[in-house]
Write a structure and sequence with these properties.
The chain is mainly alpha-helical. It contains 6 helices and 2 strands, in the order αααααββα.
């Protein structure tokens, strides 16, 4: 049973690493967009329209796609002065407190996941990918045409005529990030930071 838990944890860590890579790619895209806006404003006096909306949307993706990897690497901002002091004088107490904090964090992440699930479904179902919409043309049978029409029906974020994007990808990123973080916190609370026996997980950190 314990070996199975280690394997599931390894899979969760790999998912966190992959999501972190996607978040990093979004970050590079955001940097490129902001540089284009600076050059366009300074040289051509024609600022990139929608740069504020792009920044807000991208930040949501970056934060929640990279959150699980931050949780796995113990890089969440927190005050660990007591844990550092207790770790040197009473390691068992420090380990108990650390696992208790991780268990509480797991519960909170699970609560956020529970709250985000209906919001994601509502945003996704607004597109009517798999159902006949109340308004608009009926599906044509052409995947690309129907997909484009569905994306145009989605609940959107942004300013019409400047920049709009469907809400469901951002809410999916939030849902994925907090759900995977909850799983990783659960493993931290149950298994601690001990490595899997006879396995090297250093490459997934």
């Amino acid at each position: 049973m314990r070996d199975l838990l280690y394997r599931v944890r390894k899979l969760a860590v790999r998912l966190a690493t992959f999501a972190n890579m996607i978040g990093t790619a979004v970050l590079f895209f955001l940097v490129a967009i902001m540089n284009v806006d600076v050059v366009a404003r300074g040289i051509f006096h024609a600022p990139f329209r929608g740069v504020v909306e792009v920044v807000i949307f991208s930040l949501v993706l970056i934060v929640f796609l990279q959150l699980p990897n931050v949780v796995h690497g113990d890089r969440l901002t927190r005050s660990d002065g007591f844990l550092s002091y207790a770790g040197s004088s009473n390691p068992r107490l420090a380990n108990f407190v650390r696992r208790t904090i991780d268990a509480i964090a797991c519960i909170f992440m699970a609560m956020i996941t529970w709250a985000m699930w209906p919001e994601f479904l509502e945003a996704f179902e607004s597109c009517h990918f798999f159902s006949q919409p109340e308004f608009g043309p009926a599906p044509t049978g052409n995947f690309f045409v129907d997909f484009g029409d569905a994306m145009a029906r989605c609940d959107y974020f942004g300013t019409p005529g400047i920049f709009t994007a469907p809400w469901w990808p951002a809410k999916l990123a939030i849902l994925f990030g907090v759900a995977l973080s909850s799983v990783l916190f659960a493993f931290k609370a149950f298994l601690g930071n001990e490595p899997a026996p006879a396995q090297d997980e250093g490459s997934t950190a």
